[in-house]
Amino acid sequence: MKLIKKLVMYICVALIVGLICFTFSKTFAFKSDDNSAIPEIDSNLITKLYTYLPSKEIGNTQTLYNTYYLTVNNISYITQALMTYNYIINYDEFKLKTVPEEEKNNLNIEGTILYKITKEDFINALTYLFGTNERYYDTDFKINSNLKAKFKNDNYYIYEENTIDNIIYYKGLDSYTLTDNRETIKLNEYYLRCNKETKECFDKEGSDTPVSYIKYSENLDINSIKDKIKRYEHVFKYESDHYIWISTEGI
């Protein structure tokens, strides 16, 4: 009788140990497979993420370079639109459609019309980049000093105007870090904009207070003062098989 009890006890213990080992192995395998889906981080991926960011100030509208901690909950839609355009022009050019001459003539847009992007394609690209399109609305936006987007007839018409811009920008990727087992990428960028007429320079958009350590000149060597220039940290996270923009803040 005692032998039977011991045998039953050994069987129960073996079953429990086996169940624990099975559960552990499944959990470990899931985590391993999940992490293996994240691509290896190389310079091409870092460059791709960096090209999403605005390269120009949009008139008086602030983009990413200000005093606020920005996320998808408070980033302006104008900034989202600009970043979406940057993604399309660099990595999804099939969304750029030719505009027939007859259509151009009926648009009443001053400037040279280059191409159009359908509203549907634009929203799809925006959702890919930010993981949501809740802040989307139909609107015009400025891409840079000469390039603009006009929303009309469920299309974004990209057109060019020749304008004089006295602003010059010094910005570039300084470094990047990986966290959360490669799930999160943080881009560290330096940023400075200068007015070529007043010679004043600023380290954030919308500011009337120039920085004190530099005045603009044609011979300005940005590398000699780079350690003084303000940095901004842009965070991207791996979701749905690619990296989406999460936040930006000054550091």
Question: Can you describe this structure in just a few lines?
Answer:
This protein is an alpha+beta fold.
Description:
- The protein is α+β, with helices and mostly antiparallel strands and 251 residues long.
- The chain folds into 2 domains: 69-160, no CATH class; 167-250, no CATH class.
- The chain has 5 helices and 10 strands; from the N terminus they run ααβααβαββββββββ.
- The strands form 2 sheets. Strands 1, 6, 7, 8, 9 and 10 form a 6-stranded antiparallel β-sheet that branches.
- A hairpin with a 5-residue loop joins β7 and β8.
- The model is unreliable at 19-33 (pLDDT under 50).
Which properties best describe this structure?
27% strand; 10 strands; alpha+beta; 251 residues
Helicity range:
25-40%
Radius of gyration: 26 Å
H/I helix tally: 5
Beta percentage is 25-35%
SSE ordering: HHEHHEHEEEEEEEE
> How would you sum up the global shape?
globular
Largest beta-sheet details: 6 strands, antiparallel
| Number of E-state strands | 10
List the helices and strands and how they pair.
Elements lengths: L1 H35 L6 H9 L18 E2 L5 H15 L9 H5 L6 E7 H12 L10 E2 L4 E6 L2 E6 L6 E13 L4 E12 L5 E2 L28 E9 L2 E9 L1
Antiparallel strand pairs: 1-10, 2-5, 3-4, 4-5, 6-7, 7-8, 7-9, 9-10
